[in-house]
Design a protein that fits this description.
Blueprint: H1 26-46, H2 50-55, H3 61-75, E1 79-82, E2 85-89, E3 105-110, E4 113-117, E5 120-125, E6 135-142, E7 145-151
Antiparallel strand pairs: 1-4, 2-3, 3-6, 4-5, 6-7
Length: 163
């Protein structure tokens, strides 16, 4: 049951990493980003950030801040509604950068998110289509697994799409 003003989500299925997400390929990177999206949505819906923490680099400060915000909200008896992002790789091929990471260009839509405290919405992030706002996602692949490092703005693109 999804979250609402009446209470946090219940009986949310845990995210499952598909086998394809363990492949070092463009398709594998997309499957991994789909899983990343599921893990982040699960965190927003349940307050359980463990799935996301398992696949996100601890060096991604903005990511760790976001997960700490989720942890803190649930610890304080608050919860989130929404939070689903849908990243779609726009790159036609997966190229290993000289620094040893992959940086596929992504467009991500988001359903928006609301923070509910005491039965009232106290914060709201608007949905976004992602159209016309591409950005690179930094990924590492080691030992048959991907790690989400960070996302960045492209020069000349929108200013608020790093996650």
């Amino acid at each position: 049951m999804p979250a609402s003003l009446e209470g946090p989500a219940r009986n949310v299925p845990e995210p499952v990493l598909p086998a394809l997400a363990k492949e070092e390929s463009l398709e594998g990177a997309q499957a991994f980003l789909d899983y990343w999206s599921d893990a982040m949505w699960f965190a927003y819906q349940t307050g359980d950030t463990s799935y996301a923490r398992d696949i996100i680099s601890p060096h991604c400060e903005i990511c760790m801040d976001q997960l700490a915000l989720i942890d803190g909200a649930y610890e304080d008896g608050a919860w989130f509604i929404g939070g689903r992002e849908s990243p779609i790789i726009q790159s036609k091929e997966l190229i290993l950068s000289t620094d040893g990471t992959y940086k596929p260009v992504v467009v991500a839509s988001a359903e928006g998110v609301q923070l509910v405290e005491g039965g009232k919405v106290t914060y709201e992030a608007e949905p976004r289509s992602g159209k016309g706002d591409p950005f690179p996602v930094y990924l590492d692949f080691t030992d048959s697994s991907w790690i989400y490092i960070t996302a960045a703005n492209l020069a000349g693109a929108g200013a608020s799409n790093a996650t």
